[in-house]
Amino acid sequence: MAREDESQSVQGKTTLKGGKMSCSIGARSKAHLNEYSDYLREICGLKPDSITQMVNFGRRFLQYAAFKGISPLSGITIDIVHSFLVEQSEGCARETALGRCWKLRRFLSFLQYRGVTRSDLSAVIIRPRTFRRESCPSYLTRAEVEHVISRIDRRTSEGKHDYAVIMLLATYGLRGAEVVGLRLDDIEWRARRIHLRNRKGGNNLVHPLTPEVAGALLAYLKASRPKTSDRHVFVSSKPPHTGLRRTEAIRRIVKKRVALAGFNKRRIGAHVFRHSCAQRLLEVDHDLKTIADFLGHRDLDTTRRYLRIDIEHLRAVAINNGENLP
Q1: Domains: count for the chain
Q2: 232 catalytic, yes or no?
Q3: Exactly one of 147, 197, 200, 251 is catalytic; which is it?
C-alpha cells in the first residue's frame, strides 16, 4: 500500500518555484508530516511558528524524494540526503545552511524513530563550520528606516496595511512571528500599551503604544482591514480573512518596501528592522541590558549578536586609550 501511495505522488504535478523543485506528495507522506507536527508540539514542546518551519522543511524534503522517484520512503539513500542539502544550500550564508542541516537531521531522526527509514540517516549530515559573529547583521540606519517609511503610500489599502506592519517592526524591533501573532486584545488603547504574549523565549513583554504606532494601527483597522470575526490584527486579504499563518508574509512586505526605497540589501527579512532597532538604541548609549530588555532577550549574548561593531566607540578608544569613556 505504501509503495502504491508514494508512486502516485511521483505522478503528481511538478513545478518550479523560484528555480527550486516542487512536487506533490502522497497521503502517506502527509500523514508522516502530521505525526511530525504532533511530535514537535507534544514531545519537543516547540512553539507553533517553529513547528510550521520544521514541518515545511520536512515537506520540502519529501517533495524532493518524490521528484527523485523514491518509493517507498524506506528507499531514501545517503546520496538523496546529500543532493538535497547541496540544492538547499546554494547561495546561502553558512548560518542558514547550518540551520537547514539541523532541520533535516531532526526530521530524518523522526523518520527512523517511526520506522519509516531503515537507519538513522541524520548521522550522515555534516554540519558546515561556522564562527561566532563572523559577519555583521544586516541593518538600516535611522535615516534609512525613516526613508523606507516615507516611501509607503498610505492612501491605498495596501499601503495602510504595510505601513502598520513596518511601524511595529521599526519601533519595537518585533520578530515577524510577533507581528503575525498580534491580536486585537493585545492592544490597550486607553492605557496606551501593547502586549507581546507567548514570545520565543517564553516570556511576555509590554511596550508603550506610541502615538505614531497607534495612528498607523487605527488607520489600518478602520479603512484597510477586512471585516472578519478573527481576532488577529493582521488577516489575509482573501476570504475567509483569517490570521496570517506564516511569517513569510511579513518578510515579503519588508523586502518589497526596502526595495521600493531604493536599498539593495542581500539578506532581507523582518529581522533587518530588529537589528536596526538594537543598533539605534546602542547609538544613543543605552547599555546592553537595557537593549536586551527592550528586545525581550533573556541572554545578553543573544543581544550582542544583534549589534555590529560600534566603530565610533572603537575610534574613541584608539585616540584616548580607553580613558574617560562611558
Answers
A1: 2
A2: no
A3: 200
